[in-house]
Hints:
Blueprint: H1 4-24, H2 28-56, E1 65-71, H3 80-92, E2 97-100, E3 106-112, H4 113-140, E4 147-156, E5 159-168, H5 171-201, H6 214-238, H7 256-267
Antiparallel strand pairs: 1-3, 2-3, 4-5
Helix pairs in contact: 1-2, 1-4, 2-5, 2-6, 3-4, 3-5, 4-5, 4-7, 5-7
Amino acid sequence: MTTANAVSERLLTRIGGLLRQAESTDNEHEAEAFLSAAQRLATRSSIDLAVARAHTRNRERGATLIQRMIPIGEPGRKGLRTYVQLFVAIAEANDVRCDVARTSTQVYAYGFAADIDVCEALYSSLLVQMVQASDRYIKSGAHRSATMEKVVVERRRGRRVRRLVRVPVAGVTARLNFQMAFAARVGARLAEAKVEVERAATTRDEHGDVPVSEEQATGTALALRGKEIELADFYTRNSEARGTWRGPQTSTGYAPEARKAGDRAGRTARLGSSPELDGARGRLDGPGG
């Protein structure tokens, strides 16, 4: 019988092939197709694992839920929250729950090993693209001609008065806004792919041609729900988080042009292998001017 580790290895190999194809194409439409295919494969494989666990629960130990620490960056480096935002967005589309360290230097991922492996593979590729895309945006100088609203507090006759003024967009502000929009857009794309695949899994066979039987659809739906409950119970028993991470809240302000640019980059982001990150994810340069 196929073990969970063997399934995980085959899954990563197949996803890796899609990642390499996405990386090698300059055609945005092809890149989008490979992105969707990679996420569909990840989601479908997760469903298959859930079904397998439901059928073999009483016959073998099966896959095990784990907690894994994901390093994000060095303490004190600016912009780590946008890196966390990207990982959390990917995790949400792959049945993985996350706790975030107060310093945003690491994320604690809870889920099945195969699902967390998928998250790390996607994150490694997309993080490099996010950093490189924001670098190109900053180096282009496009942000220098943009302005943004900023709240200024003044004292008038002994009273504090707040007013909005237009100010130039600093490089660090532009970079953070760009990356926040990039991560949000990528998360939305992955979430859409997940919903599409889960809907198809309860209506069509793996090739998308023949409607599945009512029994198969019910079994898949029950397996998905069982996996969700199992993960929720595991997270509740093991998480020590005192609250919910609320995203990369920033006091640097809202830069609309940088957000638009980041969103555009997120729409065309390609998945690909990322040797730059192997063993060195925490050493990526953070935002700068």
